[in-house]
UniProtKB/TrEMBL annotation:
One of its GO terms (molecular function) is FAD binding. The keyword Oxidoreductase applies. Keywords: FAD, Flavoprotein, Monooxygenase, Oxidoreductase. Residues 468-491 are annotated as: Disordered. It comes from Saccharothrix syringae. Its cofactor is FAD. Residues 1-324 form the FAD-binding domain. The keyword Oxidoreductase applies. This is Monooxygenase.
Amino acid sequence: MLAGELALAGVGVTVLERLPEPTGQSRAPGVYAGTLRYWDQRDLLRRFGDRLRVGAHGHFALLPGGLDLGVLDTPRAAALVPQATVEEVLLRWARDLGAVVRRGHEVTGLDAGPDGVELAVSGPDGPYALRASHVVGCDGGRSAVRDLAGFAFPGTPATVDVLLADVAGLAPEDVPLPRDPFPFLRTERGWVGLSVVAPGSVRLFACDFARPPVRGAGPPSFAEVAAAVRDLSGVDISAGTPLWVSRFGNTTRQVDALRRGRVLLAGDAAHVHPPFGGQGIGLGIADAVNLGWKLAARVRGWAPPDLLNSYDAERGPAAARVLALTRAQDALMQGGAGVASLRDFVADLAALPEANRRLAAEVTGLTLRHDVGEDGPLPGRLVPHRELTAPDGTPTTTSALLRRGRGVLVDLDGRHADAAAPWRDRVDTVAARGAVEGAPALLLRPDGHVAWAGAGSPERALRRWFGEPLTGPPLTDRTAPSRAVATEGAR
């Protein structure tokens, strides 16, 4: 996602991916509304097509009753889509925009200076050096970039060991678990869950509370997973064909900062947490969309002084909030005296309409609001999805206005046509008819978050987010910076 964002903004980007080929594995089975909105802003939903299975149900710690996501003000609350499909679509998009992807290339050294970063890389043809203006580590929970650059990664180690297996030859009805609404059984000894990630197979999870995590342990055998499922639920899955087996724990960590000079981190390289609730992929996508336009502005030379620092200021607290959310779910999933009663109590609360709405907004990412220095209900929020009409009668939406990855001044009252003219090389002005929470005009950042809304002048917000106004020829007419941004990992 980050490579595509940078390439969309006209920045040369090279992706270094350690794996020679995609694994085809899908740790994440789906995404929530916030991610779907970011993808819609870049017209990526069209690329997914019918491989996105849109739904309106979610969960919080797999509590009975689940969550009704249909109450949210968003066109798509959630969608099932395998992570392998996500990686395929985003990779093709980034390449179509000009990103260079090198598979089988691993970062082994890093030297960051005031003018750039030099990487030592091990590739299929041997070691080589690569120099870039900036490096972003997107290389997962065991990030080499994070370690080489000296980021601290405090947190808590795993206390549980969850086994999982994707199994062909079994249908959901072959695994008789209670469904309320998701297949899940919790006892005093542990729990077993089921999901459908791809047609023709099921994914089984098993957590034995008495089984301690083994640091550095590899994937379990299918026999181990089948035995755990049988011991905890009485269900025999041994007749199925294993497609993939793995394990995970509830390790929770977050870096002390997302930026050290010209080296930045995003996704699992910056924060890890138990994958209860499907928050991880959404957190990483949001990091990429927030960082992409800011880093591009720095590379292209128009960024205000503190713009790149705002990545840490905004995404650090956002990640901490998600980690708190997953910790809460983890506590409700695990063993211990009184947890069963607590689950029942929280489930009763979650069934209340207002509580359901709040939890639904939290897990889908729609409560996210950055401090952009402006008052009112809209600034800082992801712009609501609203239908608009262009002056020529063409229908459009707030999301569609962001397809070019630029800032957008949305003139809804016809009085702001020239307000962003001095920033025309980086901000589009769009006249439209429609209602967006009653605002006469909106200034949207390239990531879709509202920078300003009102009837007065947006000049202060324009300067804060888009730098000084144009005084010479548009940036598109100047010689674009040739510096590349190297990223590690493909997400």
